[in-house]
Here is the input.
Amino acid sequence: MGSRFSHLGLRSRVTLAFALGALILSASMGAITYLAARQVIIQQRKTSALHQAYVNASLVRSALRSPTPRIPELLDSLDTLPGSRSVLERRGQWFATSISIGKQALPRLLRAGVVGGSAATQSFLLSNTPELAVGIPVPSVDAAYFEVFSFGSVARTLRVLALALAGAALVTTIAGAVIGRWLSGRALRPLGTVSKAAVAIAGGRLDTRLPTDDSDLEPMARSFNHMADALVERIAREARFTSDVSHELRSPLTTLNTSLEVLETHSGELSSRASQALALIATELRRFGRMVTDLLEMSRVDSGAAELSTEEVAVGELVVHLATSSGAGVPAVLDPAVADRRVRVDKRRMERVAANLVDNAAQYAGGVTRFAAEHSAGRVRLVVADRGPGVAEEDRSRIFERFYRGTLSGRRGETQGSGLGLSLVAEHVKMHGGRVFVEARDGENRFVVELPLADEPVRAANDNADNAPSGREVPRR
Ligand SMILES: Nc1ncnc2c1ncn2[C@@H]1O[C@H](COP(=O)(O)OP(=O)(O)O)[C@@H](O)[C@H]1O
Ligand SMILES: [Mg+2]
Here is the structure.
């Protein structure tokens, strides 16, 4: 095959190899069969032709011994095979049974040789039909007997045989290709399992392993599983490291915070430069504290220790609670289409999600302008909107990455964040089977948390739910 076929897929190459193998085998078998059959058939036909020619020659000899031989009748009375014709030469005179074969049709050399006294055979073509001429001198009566046998039917038989063998070769080749295709499909099936397992691991199902019951595939399955184990171990180690580091940082941080409080109570006694420095320390310390908290949370998410403890709550109740707990500063707006539907959430995590979004709006956009629950294709959307600068198009997916803080680099110095907030939001929402994204719409910059609804709608909790206006407002506590 070589490099010319290397651009083909493995299956195509196996199929091609099988087809080629079948073709070579069936073609050589066919050729051998054909040659052997041809040899046998022609030989048989030649033998019977010779036999008949000698029988007829002896008949001719005894007939010509009679005093008044009638040669045309004699020739007609001879036994002939289908397709054979007799020619007789006697004392320079020629007689034939067929008008198509006479003296002229016989090959000259044969004619001369036989008339000269030696028996001979010769194959020749007569109007494209193979013929065999047998010549036998009959010197006792001054004659030479010729018989011409047509090999046309033999040629036809051989043509049919060749066609049948070629057809068989073709069928065998196709069968070879089909078998190759099928076998390669079967042989490659384990690879499908491997790739499914790899996809599962990449998708977070880290306990996925391959079965090791097939002895041929065992080495591969083992090394795959080994790799998965190593991966899991490594992830766990990294999460442990982050968690350990964050824990270790907590106690000095507490000490620093306590000391800071002490210093702050005495800030009146400090010079203005010193109290400026103190304010700076306070800011950085708060930022540091937030980062350590976020890192701890992240490591819990990563190690999978962060089990979801969910409960089913009404959307309206949840959103009002989140608007309050996050300090959004605006009343929650509820779409009546979802206000009474239910969602299954981990409340503590949803509080963290809301707090992060509200925090960001306060930091980067002058505060939340709308905190709402909307209905969208069987799901509920929590919208935290602001009227700040928004997020640049190219940053919209990247801001959910860890430590990514956007291209608002000018503000970087003043901000309090760690760059982890939105990635935590994304992790928490993902665990709920939802998604989070940011969009700009109607002059608003909207962070949208989309969650699946817990299947069935819940009956109206109170009787006046029916006449609730759209966009019912629930005042904040
Ligand atoms: N409401 C918002 N308006 C504009 N930009 C935002 C908003 N919220 C987040 N961002 C951008 O997304 C980045 C990532 O946010 P986040 O993950 O919370 O990290 P942090 O707040 O610690 O910087 C922020 O640095 C900011 O550039
Ligand atoms: Mg933030």
In short: Residues 458-477 have pLDDT under 50 and may be disordered. Residues 4-157 form a domain with the Beta-Lactamase fold (CATH 3.30.450.20).
